[in-house]
């Protein structure tokens, strides 16, 4: 039996994209698995990172964690500066609160705030 603490998805389980942010060179996805009414979360990079040398290295998925904010903590703390591509409806209120908290400490450009407002306000995704 595969544990949800593994970086691999348990057999037969399909993660749901809860948040997708993008920037130059890539971005990140926060995925979730709902089981028995509880969510588990992980970060999945959507980029290749070039290190010293010519090889692209694909960053791996993070381990599954118990909180959405825990998965966000595995991304650079400046994630609200990135461009929101998708916010899952069940997490839009939480994401908006976290963006507003970030904005209070480190103001975002008005256009980026509008991007977040639009992403968190979409009804049909």
What does this protein look like?
The protein has 125 residues and is of the alpha+beta class. It has one domain. The chain has 3 helices and 6 strands, in the order βββββαβαα. The protein has a 4-stranded antiparallel β-sheet. A two-stranded antiparallel sheet has the order 4-5. β1 and β2 form a beta hairpin. The chain is globular, with a radius of gyration of 15 Å.
Helical content (DSSP H or I, runs of 4+): 10-25%
Strand order of the largest sheet: 3-2-1-6
Assembly state of the chains shown: single chain
- Which residue ranges are poorly predicted, with pLDDT under 50 across at least 5 consecutive positions? 1-6, 49-58
Mean pLDDT: 84
Q: Write down the domain tally.
A: 1
Strand content: 25-35%
Radius of gyration: 15 Å
How many DSSP H or I helices?
Answer: 3
Q: How far apart, in Å, are the first and last alpha carbons?
A: 33 Å
Query: What best-fitting shape do the alpha-carbon axes yield?
Result: globular
Order of helices and strands: EEEEEHEHH
User: How many strand elements?
Assistant: 6
**Biggest pleated-sheet summary:** 4 strands, antiparallel
Structural class by secondary-structure content = alpha+beta
